[in-house]
Amino acid sequence: MLSHQEGMMAELPEESSTREWKECPFCAEKISIRAKKCRFCGETIDVTLRLAEELKDKYQQELEKAKPDSTAAGNPVSGTMNGTVSASSYPMEQLNAFHVRKKRTTYILLGIFLGIWGAHNFYAGYNGRGTAQLLLTIFTGWLLLPLIPIMIWNIVEICVVNRDGDHELME
């Protein structure tokens, strides 16, 4: 049986094929040119993969800060591996890193001009309300009389609603 040193020496390239091997910048061992990770030290060699891992680690730290006790919040912890939180253990709405804040003036203008079709509710993320207003307008709008309650509904929403569908305050 070969010792660890002899086994590594057997895997080293011959001098004639130096084009297929490079030196790991972290441990100075010879590795394949196509290697994405060093087989000796485990460091990531590929720049894009390294950046992706750093972003993933940073995002996991932010999730852990936001949800320090995941069992109390009712989130499953079955997606953890080696004590780290995996992205599959959180609902999709928590994985959305960028939330675009809605503007209240846009909401009001959509409610004034396109309110009977529910455009302002679709904009704010209230898809159920928007669908209800759209269907009511399509199926009863030709009678004209049912449009009056829908218009009153719009006026009330324009005056009262100040949060979007994600319960974030509108600007």
From TrEMBL:
Q: Provide the protein's localization.
A: Membrane
Q: Has UniProt tagged this entry with the keyword Repeat?
A: no
Please give, as recorded in its UniProt entry, the membrane topology of this protein.
Multi-pass membrane protein
- Keyword entries, A-Z: Membrane, Transmembrane, Transmembrane helix
**One Pfam assignment:** TM2
| Extent of the signal sequence | none
Where are the membrane-spanning stretches? 107-126, 132-153
Gene Ontology cellular component list: membrane
- Presence of the UniProt keyword Transmembrane helix in the record: yes
The TM2 domain extends over 101-145
What main location does UniProt list? membrane
InterPro entries recorded = TM2
Protein name as catalogued: NINE protein
Q: Which organism is it from?
A: Victivallis vadensis
